[in-house]
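Posting this for the archive.
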Amino acid sequence: MKKATKKNALYAQSGGVTAVINASAAGVIDACLRSGSRIGKIYAGRDGIVGALTEDLIDVTKESRATLRGLRHTPAGAFGSARFKLKGIDQNRAEYERLIEVFRAHDIGYFFYNGGGDSMDTALKLSQIGSQMGYPLVCVGVPKTVDNDLPLTDCCPGFGSVAKYVAVSTREAALDVASMARTSTKVFVLEVMGRHAGWIAAAAGLAGRNANEAPHVILFPEIPFEQQRFLERVKQSVTDYGYCVIVVSEGAHYADGRFLADAGTRDAFGHTQLGGAAPLVAGMVREHLGYKYHWAVADYLQRAARHIASKTDVAQAYAVGKAAVEFALEGRNAVMPAIVRKSSKPYKWTIKAVPLEKVANVEKKMPRNFITADGFGITAACRRYLEPLIAGEDYPPYRNGLPDYVRIKGAAVKRKLKSRYEL
């Protein structure tokens, strides 16, 4: 009787990267390496799903053990990511058939896709097309998003570290502004990520506990922006405390749905391109109140800041990667490892599998009871939810005063298909 061959595994990163997405990669790779005879070679898509489509694969086993260990403390996407959204199967079946063709050529039986809601949708569709084409393929989504907007999971790996960075930055900047407010800057505006969900903006609320402590105003996507109410709050804060710190989500919008910072363009996923909420809000303050101000946009800094990552976040990112492989080896197809909170004090959590069909393209927003009645701050319930997620430090090793991050060699896997795929 012919001995069954071991199926190979493919891992790919998708969308905006995080400070801990490589920790998930490390979890996937470690679990594959420890699977013994159950998984053969481990590949990664160079630049995510684009690498899979173009048959541009990386042989992960060619990396040194030191490099693979170093992934756990290295930010960004070590194997390359991409904002490339596959259309529906009915709209462009050829793309999915091409992926199965690549998988078949390289004997890939396990696919681990590390991303957000759109990526979970892709993993789900790939599991479906594999079944339709009679190709045995186990697809498991690995959760990742700084926006913390995936459903059925207590939190999303990547969020805790962004939350920690934003909370720390808000506290530090507030001290700076407060020390100069009498004769100089009275208003500071920080813009953070968050298209439709205000989780990151909410995290800034951890910077202070009392009414006189920053941030004095948080602008959430969940609360329609009203200019007059906003300006009155800013003026009152300056009157009461001498200064005002404002944190605005990039997704803040008016009652009619228009984003404050709509740039008029769209990204590769079809989302409205945002940016510029901070200078817009600061301009309102200058025009109507005349206060001297400064503004900043956290942008990539907030999601790349591995030097101040949350220990909880790093542990969870690694755990979901490891669990993804364990679920796959159990034969669980089209699922995602979700984090389940068992208690907040002390913070205890575990992992369970949830169906991709219940996760794909579903957005989890801030519950109203997490936002104060006036719409400008966070409640005690929100604080109880957030605080465990930023807990602990997991510093990377340092060399010559800088974090010592790793870079992969990225050894290419030999192509087997004659056809080439053009993006």
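The radius of gyration is 23 Å. The chain has two domains: 7-145+308-361+394-403, 159-306.
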